[in-house]
TrEMBL record:
The entry's keywords: Carbohydrate metabolism, Glycosidase, Hydrolase, Polysaccharide degradation, Signal
Alphabetical list of SUPFAM superfamilies matching this protein: (Trans)glycosidases, beta-Galactosidase/glucuronidase domain, Galactose-binding domain-like
Gene Ontology biological-process entries: polysaccharide catabolic process
Domain Exo-beta-D-glucosaminidase Ig-fold: 769-871
The UniProt record lists the keyword Lipid biosynthesis: no
Protein name: Glycoside hydrolase superfamily
Residue ranges occupied by any Mannosidase Ig/CBM-like domain in the UniProt entry: 674-756
Source species of the chain: Aspergillus coremiiformis
Domain Glycoside hydrolase family 2 immunoglobulin-like beta-sandwich: 209-325
Amino acid sequence: MHARDALWAIGVLAHSAACMASPGDTAIIPGWHLQSALHAPLNLTELSLPAVQDVSSWYRVGSRATVMAGLIANGLYSDTDLFYSNNLQAVDQTIFRSPWLYREELTLIAPRKGQHVFLVTHGITSRADIYFNGHQIASNSTQQGSYGGHRYDITSLIQTGKNAVLIQAHPTNYLRDFAQGFVDWNPYPPDNGTGVWRNVELKQTGSVSISSPRILTDFIGLESDNVTVTIKTDIKNHEAFAVRGVVDGTIQANDDAFRTVAFSRQFNLAPYNSTTLCIDVLLKDPQIWWPAAWGEQPLYTVQANVSIGKNEISDIAPRTQFGIRHITSQVNSHNGTEFNINGSPFHVRGGGYSPDMFLRFDLERLRTIFRYMLDMGLNTVRLEGKQEHPELYDLADRMGMMVMTGWECCDKWEAWEYNEDAKGVKWIENDYSVAEAAMLHEAAMLQAHPSMLVFLLGSDFWPNDRATEVYMNALHRMDWSNPVIASASKRGYPKVLGPSGMKMEGPYDWVPPNYWYQGKLGGAFGFGSEQGAGVGTPEMSSLQQFLSPQDLETLWRKPDAAQWHMGKNDSIFAYRTLYNKALFARYGAPTGLEDYLRKSQMMDYEATRAEFEAFGTRQNASHPATGVVYWMLNSAWPNLHWQLFDYYLRPAGSYFGTKMGARLEHVAYDYEACAVYVINHSLHARGTRIVTVDLIDLHGKSLAHLNITTDTNPTASKEVAVVPDIKKLKDVGFLKLTLQDPVQGTVLSRNVYWLSAKTDRLDWDNSTWFATPVTKYVDFTALNQLREAAVSASMKIFSKHDSTLAEITLENTSDVPAFFLHLMIVDETGVELAPVYWSDNYITLFPQEKTSVTVEFDGKKKWMAGMTGANVGKKVIGNR
Ligand SMILES: *[C@@H]1O[C@H](CO)[C@@H](O)[C@H](O)[C@H]1NC(C)=O
Ligand SMILES: *[C@@H]1O[C@H](CO)[C@@H](O)[C@H](O)[C@H]1NC(C)=O
Ligand SMILES: *[C@@H]1O[C@H](CO)[C@@H](O)[C@H](O)[C@H]1NC(C)=O
Ligand SMILES: *[C@@H]1O[C@H](CO)[C@@H](O)[C@H](O)[C@H]1NC(C)=O
Ligand SMILES: *[C@@H]1O[C@H](CO)[C@@H](O)[C@H](O)[C@H]1NC(C)=O
Ligand SMILES: *[C@@H]1O[C@H](CO)[C@@H](O)[C@H](O)[C@H]1NC(C)=O
Ligand SMILES: *[C@@H]1O[C@H](CO)[C@@H](O)[C@H](O)[C@H]1NC(C)=O
Ligand SMILES: *[C@@H]1O[C@H](CO)[C@@H](O)[C@H](O)[C@H]1NC(C)=O
Ligand SMILES: *[C@@H]1O[C@H](CO)[C@@H](O)[C@H](O)[C@H]1NC(C)=O
Ligand SMILES: *[C@@H]1O[C@H](CO)[C@@H](O)[C@H](O)[C@H]1NC(C)=O
């Protein structure tokens, strides 16, 4: 929004007398009065007349809020309560089965001749009737779907003084409506996400309006001292007479105001006609945009306006940010999708994103989520039909986070005749129009963003031929220049798109670390669009926020009990049975909640590390692994699984396992071949590397030591050694791998495993869509007999802007390993602070070994750093 738009919006908000609005201004309707249609007058025509109805007793909500989000903001519900134990289950849904009304009065001035005003929507869930000053301007057959963006001409209805807009949002049924469902992820919000979840705007123009610019470049990944940027924009004449005019604009490098190039194009438009202008602009010395790990994120901004007559501004296009980069995808000879960015193979290491259960959007929270992702070494976020808001893409552009988006699985979106899994209501005629509007709107929103990797037209199922045509035409209409893929699975595909090259073979529930190395199902080959061992157990500080004492007791005492904070209660993911069976067998029955949690973090760490490492080791194998998306990145509410950090943004075992496994330069262990791999995900790092391999037993006795000199190349991995004597381990051994750069004298990676002579035995033939059973588990129970280790710790504290930075040095002064040291920063009440950025955690130190980690957090209030480990007592390291 422009600064001047904001002023206008404030003018509206203040209900000030006629505020000056000029063509090109956009104002977000700043808030709404919200009420159930059951508690409001029935005559909506009348209710939408200004000043007729007193709605001051209605709930006051912001510019965008689902009904539940609005009611929570008004204190009718508290999310702390709703999220505690199984309280959500008790919410009476009756009121959510009727429509809800959003009403706002606006002080405006009637447009002069030659001026036009539009009401602009970006999606209202699930469908809406819209009224303005006593007239219905949209009906629910058009204004449909969470992504249905439309523009309604309200020029003739506006009066000087008070005006009223009224939206009736109809209740959402995920099986019938194009909404944002949660499938089996979690229980559904009581309102199914109904309401004005995205902004509604007023847009004022003169005779000619201009669309958001769409940006194409001729950059194809080869170095060049210039790039041609093509700016495409739609202009429309709203008058009954022909109009001459000019589009003027600039392209400016965001970090350098002096690098500005102007463009201009004259046009003639017949009465009511519209056209698309294509304007080529040559950019010298283009700065190329890269994903975060590969380089900088230089951005450019296009500004454009259209004027008619004597330099009379008629409309101003939304400022549009773009970056210069080139993305392609292809399906290789093994039916695996390979992405390529700026000429280099881009191996996706991603996570599946969830919005908040009530679709509340918090940019600061998202910034933390993206920072966590980059910290873990991930490079891609998968939004499965959860496109959120434009701010997400601006942020992704700036942070270098690639975005894989597309329509969601199941429910209405995939109610195709050949989809025997979906309970959704099959598509009828009007649904194709709804889908078209959604695709046009989202494509326009996403088109210019350099962070956009791919759009998936389906998730579990591919769209039928007619829907594919609708989607593809809409994408072409919006000059989509990124890959489009039919679905995230291999089940089938529309002819025009061909095979997806993505696999969705599970797992979604617990499998052992060696699963990934056996070349079957979800194993490390091809492109895994959503898969993982299901892990993501929060630590105690978080659990105590949403589980009752009884729930906590159940967690470790009743391994087969249903858990309300797992997947939806009627899905198989409501249980931790598979996971707990493995935990009890591999690590021994828990002796209490703390013991259960420690063992859970070990299981979670093993699981995520192995998945990312396996895909890393196979990135250039003969049957290559081209990408993997962990299922899932985060949760819609406090959850016990399917996440790399919890709802309260506390990282635990699954986070640090991922962070270890997805390191840019790394050394990893292949559980099946007992082999050591050097992994390089970087774009430039190459040269000599030294790998050391150390195997010790539980008493700290050395069983093997290797020191290998090798070399490394960008985006490639290679086997460098086989660990001797693993098969001779008596019970449990510890394997430490380090990777050093001898030139820089740096340790690039340090990675410790706990292993036994045997690996978990998988029963592949009895695999289901969600897991492969284990018939014989490894026995790690000897870990429970580890002798106690002594670890000394010291801390140096630095300040960094408004956060606290500290370095903690740990030294194991004993001759046995110090296993699984969990470091934490807690507040005065012992609750872990979040967000918190640790360079490493859940660390295992070899005898007499010393290492340092760093941590960054908001240390303005009192805090304490502490440590606990499997064979190390609780200890305070420092405080402030
Ligand atoms: C609704 O209100 C409008 C405006 O006051 C009025 O013209 C119309 O007759 C009313 N409709 C019904 C069904 O009462
Ligand atoms: C799941 O929760 C719903 C309420 O959200 C409840 O009506 C239903 O009985 C529960 N089903 C099971 C299998 O527990
Ligand atoms: C949509 O609008 C039509 C016509 O106004 C109305 O009959 C229908 O009940 C509305 N749909 C819903 C879901 O309320
Ligand atoms: C939400 O959608 C589900 C179908 O996915 C439906 O069963 C349920 O009744 C809906 N809830 C409300 C309040 O309409
Ligand atoms: C653009 O770059 C190409 C390749 O570097 C060069 O051949 C061409 O002359 C340049 N064009 C302009 C207008 O600078
Ligand atoms: C319209 O664009 C021209 C050229 O970029 C610029 O000089 C002018 O300030 C713009 N006007 C407005 C109102 O944005
Ligand atoms: C309207 O614009 C289109 C291009 O968008 C053009 O082909 C057509 O001739 C125009 N119509 C008139 C009446 O000028
Ligand atoms: C690739 O997919 C096609 C079509 O589904 C199939 O015919 C072919 O056998 C597959 N090739 C490989 C190597 O799996
Ligand atoms: C590994 O070997 C190199 C020389 O071959 C030596 O310089 C280095 O100190 C050794 N490193 C370790 C950790 O053993
Ligand atoms: C599948 O598991 C069952 C026991 O649960 C076993 O009897 C059967 O042999 C297994 N099937 C295969 C193909 O291994």
